[in-house]
User: What shape does this take?
Amino acid sequence: MADTSTPASVAAGLAGLLAGLNADEIASVLASHLAPEALAPVEAALAAASERAHKRRLYHIDVRDDALGRPGTMRAMIELFGRGAGIRVCRRWRDTARQAVPLTTKEEAKLCRAIVRGEGSSGCYDDPHLLANLGYYNVTTIDLSHESCKNIDDLEVNILAKRCPKLTTVDLSRCYELTDACLVALAEHCPCIKSISVDWCREVTSKGIVAIANPNIVHFGLANCSKVTPNAITTLAERCPKLSSVELPYRHITDESIAALVEGCESIVSIGLEDTNVSTATIIALAAKHDRLTTINLGRCLHITPDAILALAEKCTRLTSIRLAHCNINTPAVVAVAKNCPGLTMIILDSANIETSAIVELAANCPKLIWVSLDRCANVSASAAVLALSEHCPDLKVLYLSHTDITDGAAIEALVEGCPNVTGVGLGGTNISDATIECLSDGLYLSVINLTECPNISVAAIETLTNSDTRITYIWLDRRFQNDCTALRLAHEGIQINFRD
Assistant: This one.
């Protein structure tokens, strides 16, 4: 610059900074007062000053106030100004400039489908820059349990754990590829977790469960985690004294480990014990110690007797949901539940050895019922049961009557008239005909229906069902309908059809 600096070039720089002065006048003053060798450093200083002034003008770009805190806006402006400019704005911009790391396409495609809720947020985000800046949303809940996330792996969960240290609720249900590594990462980076669900994560073992177990946990979902041992359940009982809701895995879970859970966790209000080896004695102890219990699942618990249900009915009068499918229960036990638990909204009694009077008592005493399943209840008159429910339970939404003696006629008509909110019906293995389908189509907004093993229904009835304003999304049909043009057309309309032999 020393060889090219002249009074004219330096004057031009000064004129650019000092508005209103003529460059020729400044040049004449410089030529008379400065030696040529002094012009170079002056021009260099002017160039630096000009650059700083240009950046200051950029800083005054008009940006909506509600966009200034968004990661996408911050990243775009940092790219415009440079990392140094971003660091000077505020702590949040500084962290964005220093820590925002682009993700691979694969990672973005998987993780941007996650439902992310943060304190003060109003919805879901699908921003390609979201994941690099999740920490700024104060994310507290991440749900990866839906179909689009079933192939999420440990790497993605590790990224979420690092960038969302304030997580309190994480649902990883049915993410089949996850292993203990994801739970170890969550335990390391997210100390505030209170609710964790890994239902159907078949590769998760006791190691992962023990790693994340801590005194803050209030909900743990472990349904169908077949590699989790009874010792891990005992560890949960020791490390998670605030546990209030738990879904336990498969049939290998022992009665001793469940008893330890009942004894060690004093706040249990919801417990899932389906297909475990729980005993009548442990259920009686549960009822005695946890009278605030609202939800219990005892489906396929083959070692309990009606005495266990009687104890629950006597002590746990706040029950709203009880599942007793394929259990050894009788009519007096169900009647006791009906009379002592008026707030009941769900009861599952599949294959129960009960009589019609039990359902009549349920309907009369539990008017808030919204979900009733009586599949394969051979000793129950389905028509009488439906008439009772139609009379007393106007909020009913789901009714399963597969493999019962339900037929066309007054009971179906009463259901349509008395329970207009029904959206799901199970009628598989019954002798209903097209008349029942037409009645249901005309009176209800069905979304789910099971019509397998119904020999008296025709293609015309299925067309009636789907052409009406039923909003059907799931249908179970016999395979004899598979090649029918109607089924093919329905598949194209977005209705999921499940065919069974």
